[in-house]
């Protein structure tokens, strides 16, 4: 039984989510304070964390950064009333795997939760494939990325998107195709979300290197490789 941690200071919303997720067969624990959530997540194993931004003691960004700094790779789905590009980018930079603005439909939350859990279970499957593009190395099995002598830390969702682009071997992948491959068809994720992830990947993969590898082909999509 998958164990889910809900970190939400709105008591009624947290209790409602707990009731609905429990009905779906998940083991759910609620916490209403950011610092308490951080301590709990460091002591116990959870299969996924549903995390609000506005929390007492520590906000969601701070909690997420702390967990990632402690090498906690548990998938994190961030809930927030904010929907601006900058807010999403800050969340992804903090190590968030997915982002769901309020208000939301429980069906969408469940779909995203299941996708995060599925990918997390696949993370340790044996796979020796290593994708090499210029000085960028992507170890598909170990879920690790290295450029030159530098190890690049990516969230699980960032790694998935980078791998899809790398596997295309220089052929552009459209935003809609990325959404379908990463989130599936039963989701309301839009192209703006893809732009946020691409911006985050460029900051991590290209920013500190003279040769840029993540490119946009106008009208076609994104690709990884030498600029045409």
Walk me through this protein's architecture.
Helix 4 (85-94) crosses helix 8 (191-205). The chain is globular. It folds into two domains: 3-122, Response regulator (Rossmann fold), CATH 3.40.50.2300; 130-224, Winged helix-like DNA-binding domain superfamily/Winged helix DNA-binding domain (Arc Repressor Mutant, subunit A, Orthogonal Bundle). With 228 residues, it is of the alpha/beta class. The mean pLDDT is 86. A hairpin with a 2-residue loop joins strand 8 (144-147) and strand 9 (150-152). A five-stranded parallel β-sheet has the order 2-1-3-4-5, with helices on both faces. It has a four-stranded antiparallel β-sheet with strand order 6-7-8-9, covered by helices on one side. It has eight helices and eleven strands.
Helical content (DSSP H or I, runs of 4+): 40-55%
Number of domains: 2
- Put simply, the count of helices is 8
Helix-and-strand structural type: alpha/beta
Radius of gyration computed on alpha carbons: 18 Å
Question: What would the average pLDDT be, to the nearest integer?
Answer: 86
Distance between the termini: 49 Å
The rough form would be described as globular
Q: Give me the strand/helix succession.
A: EHEHEHEHEHEEEEHHHEE
| Number of extended strands | 11
Q: What is the beta-strand fraction?
A: 15-25%
CATH topology of the largest domain: Rossmann fold
Do you know the CATH architecture of the largest domain?
Answer: 3-Layer(aba) Sandwich
* Oligomeric state of this protein: single chain
Strand order of the largest sheet: 2-1-3-4-5
Low-pLDDT runs of 5+ residues are none
- The CATH homologous superfamily name of the largest domain equals Response regulator
**CATH C-level of the largest domain:** Alpha Beta
């Amino acid at each position: 039984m998958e164990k889910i941690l809900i970190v939400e200071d709105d008591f009624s919303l947290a209790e409602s989510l707990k009731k609905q997720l429990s009905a779906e067969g998940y083991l759910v624990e609620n916490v209403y304070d950011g610092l308490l959530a951080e301590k709990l997540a460091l002591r116990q194993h959870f299969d996924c964390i549903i995390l609000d931004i506005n929390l007492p003691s520590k906000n969601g960004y701070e909690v997420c950064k702390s967990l990632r700094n402690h090498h906690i790779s548990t998938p994190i789905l961030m809930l927030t009333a904010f929907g601006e590009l900058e807010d999403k980018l800050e969340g992804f930079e903090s190590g968030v795997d997915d982002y769901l603005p309020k208000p939301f439909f429980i069906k969408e939350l469940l779909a995203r939760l299941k996708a995060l859990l599925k990918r997390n279970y696949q993370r340790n499957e044996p796979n020796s494939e290593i994708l090499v593009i210029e000085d960028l190395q992507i170890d598909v099995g170990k879920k690790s990325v290295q450029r030159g002598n530098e190890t690049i830390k990516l969230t699980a969702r960032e790694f998935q998107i980078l791998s899809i682009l790398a596997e295309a071997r220089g052929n552009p992948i459209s935003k809609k195709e990325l959404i379908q491959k990463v989130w599936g068809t039963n989701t309301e994720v839009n192209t703006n979300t893809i732009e946020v992830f691409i911006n985050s990947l460029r900051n991590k993969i290209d920013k500190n290197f003279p040769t840029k590898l993540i490119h946009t082909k106008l009208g076609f999509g994104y690709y990884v490789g030498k600029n045409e």
